Amino acid sequence: MENERLKIKIDNLNFYYGDTQALFNIKLEIPEKKVTAFIGPSGCGKSTFIRTFNRMNDIIPGTRIEGIITIDGEDIYHNSLDVVNLRKKVGMIFQKSNPFPKSIFENIAYGPKIHGLKDKNKLTTIVEDCLRKAALWDEVKDRLEQNALGLSGGQQQRLCIARALAIEPEIILMDEPASALDPKSTSKIEDLISELRENYTIVIVTHNMQQAARVSDYTAFFYEGVLIETDETSQIFTKPKLKQTEDYITGKFG
Amino acid sequence: MKNNNGKDTFIYWVMRIITYSIVIIIAYILIDIIIKGLPAINIEFLTESPRKSGAEGGIFPVILGTLYLVTLTILIALPLGMFSAIYLTEYAKQNKITKILRLAIVTLAGVPSIVFGLFGLGLFVIFLGFGASILSGSITLALMILPTIIVSSEEALKAVPQYMREGSLALGATKWQTIQKNVLPSAMPGMLTGAILGVGRAAGETAPILLTAAAFFLPSLPSSVFDQVMALPYHLFILSTQVPEPQKIMHMQYGTALVLITLVLGLNLIAIIIRIRIRKKYNW
Fold first, then answer.
1. Which of B171, B177, B188 to mutate to test the interface with A (most CBs of A within 10 A)?
2. Are the CB atoms for B178 and B168 separated by under 8 Å?
3. CATH number of A6-249: 3.40.50.300, 3.40.30.10, 3.50.50.60, 3.40.640.10?
4. B41-281 placed in CATH 1.10.3720.10
5. Is the pTM of this model over 0.80?
6. What is the ipTM of this complex?
7. Which among A59, A147, A163 has CB closest to B171?
8. What is the least distance, in Å, from the CA of A88 to any CA of chain B?
9. Could you tell me the pLDDT band of residue B281, with boundaries at 50, 70 and 90?
10. Strands A218-223, A226-232: pairing kind
11. How far apart are CA A68 and CA B208, in angstroms?
């Protein structure tokens, strides 16, 4: 990782749902302005892991975390940390697109508004800007006042990306963002990721190994809560060091 | 096999007949009241005060009294019920204490209405000194319908999918912002429906207001929440039992019953319309 700035550092992370341990002693470094993909079979803990970066697991009762996660050197589980500020810095896209039952405009303006922006002109600028960045502007510019739930699944997911961009995050977490979409919508999301990598640190969880190979710079392979192997994506997919990784990416199990 | 099929058909018909019978009973009551009550309904009946203990004249102050009670009841019960439901679903840890709270609320729903009346009499009328008044009656009715509102509000909140909350929280919204701007608007139709159904019940209750608010007869209209009122269910009770020769003023009784039923069904209808309209707007 020469010439790369470290963005997220995970050290000795253990995670528990009640008495069940979901993540075991994970160590990982995620570089800035790169795409890092988490792959692995269902239930391997990759979604749980990505949700620790914006403390989304906090809202699940009975969960417990051990170890240290720092973003830009700051311990995000420290008592003095404001979760609201953390989540402003770390945006998230969910597996199931979840636009609010409001207009397209209000969906994008939601984040800036709750953070205190009232100026209508500025909001309009942000909405247009974010929709352009999410490659959705041309499709919706004439119907910003319409309910976002009228959009197609792929459009809804890009709307959610635009909505996340509106709070000006530095990191974007994507939890299987294309798993519910058709191939065409999926390729649009992937194109979008390629553009966003210029300015954002992106972490993506995916079931789809071709997708990881296409969009990511680094790949981490998880199995049963353990980080098995991590490397540059080209390495992982051509010359994995471990047999287990090779078996998974060649489709022998999973 | 043939025997089993026969059994099946038999049970099918038993269930079908029972279900239809219920509809027939309701239809009979409604039609009976409409046929006997409609002749009593005219301008005089709806706009004038009762004379001779209600044997003559109209029921205007009685209708007004019930509307006052119902309005104040919903103003008290809706916010209390909503905030309790928000606490129970969004904030309370799902532990033993919350279970006990829920059990208490459900139990409250099963308390007979006359007991609420006695409680209201003791606490609001006498101890707090509100007297027999719109205020005492409305608080008593509000307490009575609170469980209905809490339970239906909880259902409405639970129906809002978790990913909506996560979407808002992930944008850096606080919990209260998420509830206020995202969860509540989506849950509102369900909450309002529950509230209006509860109020429909409150409008028809006699026992709680008998002891806390209702007057046999009042010469003038109430001018503040500390005044007593006449109310439809209690007036109906008077017309049926407390006047000499009640059988001679059947039309007045049925007229009053018709107005009361129209009011309650009207409230239910409003609840249904609100639900349909808001649900269209917030469809996920």
1. B171
2. yes
3. 3.40.50.300
4. yes
5. yes
6. 0.90
7. A163
8. 5
9. low
10. antiparallel
11. 60
